[in-house]
Amino acid sequence: MTRALLVCPEPLGHKQPAGIGIRFLEMARVLRADGHQVTLLSPDGGAITPERLREATAANDVAVVQGHIANELFAHGHPIPTVVDLYDPFIIENLHYFASRGAEVFHHDHATLEQSLLRGDFFLCASDAQRLFYLGALLAVGRLNPVAFEADPHLDSLISVAPFGVPPPRALAPRDLDTPRVLFGGIYDWYDPILAIEAVALARERLPKITLTFNAHPNPALTPQGKASEARDHVRRKSYDFVRFEPWTPYEERAAFYDRFAVALLTFPQSVETDLSMRTRVYDYLWGGMPIVTSSAPGTDDILARYGAGIVVHGDSAPDFAEALIRALSADLSGGAQRFAEDHQWSRTLAPLVRFVRAPRAAEHPRAPERPSILSRIKRRIGGPL
Question: How many CA atoms lie within 13 A of 166 on its CB side?
């Protein structure tokens, strides 16, 4: 049995976790099921203090951390083997905040990522595309070098893909197609909620009872609300009565919440964030049995095509999204959603984490070979001794 410390950057006490919080709760469950003792810290009630981190790291064999709270762990905790979870590419997501918050956000994100890459012993990411991105970053900070490459040519001992997962498949309620409800969910600043609103407005010309629901984020102080404010202003300005803004649903109650909806909708512009992010809600909505209509993104496109569980719309045309919603509501896509859930159990997606926690180890941090001297470079160039 290993004693594992999980340091989550998001509050969990309100029982309404977003993506990162969900991932840490499921990490804890999977590790406990594998026989390990787990301590889960989150910022609730000031639980993550320098003293608490010193105590917790002294009492545990391995740590798992994500995001900016890693700075506190590395600064105040005792050195123990540490897994840095990189599934959320925050440095890319937060590029959206430069206009409203200036350069400080980027510089803080960059320093955080750099220190995590230098100090972590093992890394998790969400996709093959993310793995290549982070391998480039590890190369930039010196962790990927000729010595490390010779020891492990694929770098599997350094970074592994551990996607988001879902709970076991469940019995699905029949979809209400007479008064179809569309779920968008929380609004982050890299989404396009107004496109979604206008798509549903057009769909109402053929389905007059269709509605659209957004959720208020449970941690608004941690997540800028620019696009959410724009969406509310747009709804008021247009006097749309078919758009709902509802509270975030507690994690353990979301199955019944999902049963109210006939289809999920995601709209977002194209960017490098689109290329690298894995949408948490795509996984959870499919587990909930909802077909998905979405803007194109590499990871999402592949999932929906492989399982036949949704429709991808290329471009930003509201009429195209409206047509896709109508098609999704008339199709039977629930079987694909259930097959997806069967294949993406948390115990399977988190297997790299489980393997590391069973045998935690501190990385050797091999240094790159020193730059050859001028003399040795001249010798190599002329092909022999001087």
Answer: 24
- The CA-to-CA distance between both ends of the chain, in Å, stands at 60
∠ CA(369), CA(370), CA(371), 5° rounding? 120
Is the C-alpha dihedral spanning 21, 27, 29, 32 positive or negative?
negative
pTM score, two decimals? 0.89
> C-alpha distances in angstroms, 210 versus 204, 205, 285, 319?
6, 10, 18, 15
Q: At residue 47, does pLDDT exceed 90? A: no
Q: How far apart are CA 137 and CA 14, in angstroms?
A: 35
pLDDT value for 378: 58
Taking a C-beta distance cutoff of 8 angstroms, is the pair 6, 40 a contact? yes
**Range in 36-45, 70-79, 221-230, 273-282 the model is least confident about:** 221-230
Residue 260 one-letter amino acid? R
The fold adopted by the segment(s) 3-165+345-358 is: Rossmann fold (3.40.50)
Range 117-130 burial, b when 16+ CB lie within 10 A, else e: bebbbbbbbbbebb
Structurally, at CATH architecture level, domain 181-343 sits in 3-Layer(aba) Sandwich (3.40)
DSSP 15: S
Rounded to 5°, the CA angle 143-74-276 comes to: 55
